[in-house]
Amino acid sequence: MRKLVAAIAVVSGLALAGCQTVALPSLNLNTAVALNTVYGIENAYGVAVNAANAYKALPLCRTGTVPGAANICARRSVIERLQAAMRKARLAVNNLVALQKTYPSVDITNALSAAQSALIVVQQILASGA
């Protein structure tokens, strides 16, 4: 009798288990690559913010002087261009992050290139001020 009850329990358990299908988690490599790229852009923006803040913290150059090894200073024109470029970079990075979070399966190539371009402009402005 015990064997019969055990057999019925096993068959019932298998039947119930067959009704319940559990989907295994899948990894979409395109989404994972896009997320890593977005995180990289966010980190690059953080580095750009720190570099811009460090440049703005330098004393302003006196009229007629240029920054150099002997004269460490920040030019006002570079600071103004840097602030405008940082605003554009922040907007581009925020748009990229929002697009990736809202629509994870959508191609983010255009938003990604816009954010990269904005960060490259910030980098070029910082390099020109040195």
List the helices and strands and how they pair.
Elements: H1 2-19, H2 29-57, H3 76-102, H4 109-129
Helix pairs in contact: 2-3, 2-4, 3-4
Brief synopsis:
The chain is mostly helical and 130 residues long. It is built from four helices and no strands.
Structure description:
- The structure is a single chain.
- With 130 residues, the chain is mainly α.
- Helix content is 73%, strand content 0%.
- It contains 4 helices and no strands.
- The protein has helices spanning 2-19, 29-57, 76-102, 109-129.
- Helix 2 (29-57) runs antiparallel to helix 3 (76-102), helix 2 (29-57) packs parallel to helix 4 and helix 3 (76-102) runs antiparallel to helix 4 (109-129).
- The longest helix is centred in the N-terminal third of the chain and has 29 residues, at 29-57.
Compute the number of strand runs.
Answer: 0
Rounded to an integer in angstroms, the radius of gyration calculated over CA atoms is 28 Å
Q: Compute the number of helices.
A: 4
Note the overall shape.
elongated
Helical content (DSSP H or I, runs of 4+):
over 70%
Which tags fit this structure?
130 residues, mainly alpha, elongated
